[in-house]
Design a protein that fits this description.
This is Putative glutamate--cysteine ligase 2. It catalyses: L-cysteine + L-glutamate + ATP = gamma-L-glutamyl-L-cysteine + ADP + phosphate + H(+). GO terms for molecular function: ATP binding; glutamate-cysteine ligase activity. Belongs to the glutamate--cysteine ligase type 2 family. YbdK subfamily. It comes from Streptomyces naganishii JCM 4654. The structure is a single chain. Strand 8 and strand 9 form a beta hairpin. This protein is mostly helical. 49% of the residues lie in helices and 9% in strands. The chain has a domain of 239 residues: 2-Layer Sandwich (Creatine Kinase, Chain A, domain 2), CATH 3.30.590. Strands 3-7-6 form a three-stranded antiparallel beta sheet. The protein has a two-stranded antiparallel ribbon with strand order 1-2. Strands 4-5 form a two-stranded antiparallel ribbon. The model has no long low-confidence stretch (mean pLDDT 95). The chain has 14 helices and nine strands.
Length: 350
């Protein structure tokens, strides 16, 4: 972002060049679809406090590299100010632009993905099948994209609504086995509508690169502690699902239609109003649904020592609100969107 105007700047290539010159950052920062976006990846962690520290460090390093070329970074899932995205052209991105037209040009949105290790594809598919109804709750927690092209979208996570324009994005039906999962992805690629298996943009999927389940529903979070909480809850969901599978439990067979409604409700309401309870698919206050999520993963979090920190983080989140609430409160305090961005730059570094 321009530190004076708050406008997105297509300078990620210059920031990446700075990062690549730093040995410690060579495998951390990555190129993304647009010149206004910078991605970073943390290393595998088992200690959630250490993960939180690394998130903060990476954000500070990104800010340092950006500052050296006169710009700033903000952990925002959409730009509050109007923007015309600049596509970082390579063969893959050119294919996306040609194939999807305006949908590609309007995808300047920033999400957060969480990888959680699994022992096999069989366990991974069992996890993907079982965590489906809980993923909208993670979206509501992370929601950090209320503004779109200078206007209030009336959504807490408008990013997720833009992201769902991709034809392969969203919730999935039950797969039941690795064979069915891989056959479904192969059939999708064979249509020619998507380029390859990397474009199976499911809300949760088997990673094609790592022995992990990849959970892909969250907005990039304004506050680093919210990102740590999302990772903690994601790991709890995966472990809880794996335990249920090993014990012979069956996944809840909600339809994709209901799951889409739950995701829409989470994107619209965030934590301010009601969410759909993952078990019943009926409305309850958001706080009650968050407590239900904590209860659902409590045994898994207790085993890793994360239950108390997660409970405290949820309490703080309910007090402060998600990123969307923070952005709107800043605007209501008489600040303009430029000032909202400036404050988000500050909060990005904690």
């Amino acid at each position: 972002m321009d530190p004076e105007t708050g406008e997105p700047k297509a300078l990620s290539a210059a920031v990446l060049a700075r990062a690549e010159a730093n040995d410690a950052d060579q495998d951390v920062f990555e190129k993304e679809l647009y010149g206004q976006m910078l991605e970073f990846a943390t290393h595998p962690r088992t200690d959630m406090a250490r993960l939180g520290e690394e998130i903060v460090r990476c954000r500070k390093e990104a800010a340092r590299h950006a500052g050296e070329i006169g710009c700033a970074v903000a952990a925002l899932a959409t730009s509050p100010l109007p923007v015309s995205p600049t596509i970082s052209m390579n063969r893959r991105y050119q294919w996306l632009a040609d194939q999807y037209g305006i949908a590609t040009r309007e995808q300047l949105v920033c999400g957060m993905h969480v990888h959680v290790a699994v022992e096999s594809d069989e366990e991974g598919v069992a996890v993907v099948d079982r965590i489906r109804p809980w993923l909208p709750v993670l979206l509501a927690i992370s929601a950090n994209s209320p503004f779109w092209q200078g206007q209030d979208s009336r959504y807490d996570s408008y990013r997720s609504r833009v992201w769902d324009r991709w034809p392969s994005a969203g919730p999935t039906e039950l797969f039941g086995s690795p064979e069915r999962y891989h056959r479904r992805v192969a059939d999708m690629v064979a249509t020619g509508v998507i380029l390859d298996e990397k474009m199976a943009y499911f809300d949760a999927r088997l990673s094609e690169r790592y022995p992990t389940v990849e959970i892909r529903v969250a907005d990039v979070c304004l506050h680093a502690d919210t990102a740590q909480l999302i990772a903690t809850l994601a790991r709890g969901l995966v472990e809880t699902a794996a335990r249920d599978w090993r014990a012979g439990g069956e996944p809840v067979d909600h339809s994709v239609s209901l799951l889409r409604l739950a995701s829409w409700q989470a994107a619209r309401a965030g934590l301010a109003r009601e969410l759909l309870h993952p078990a019943t698919m009926r409305r309850l206050p958001a706080e009650a649904v968050l407590r239900a999520l904590l209860e659902h993963v409590a045994d898994a979090l207790e085993a890793t020592g994360d239950l108390r920190p997660a409970e405290e983080a949820v309490g703080e989140l309910l007090r402060r609100g998600n990123g969307a609430r923070v952005q709107r409160e800043l605007l209501e305090d008489g600040k303009g969107l430029r000032d909202v961005v400036t404050e988000c730059v500050r909060r990005t570094q904690g």
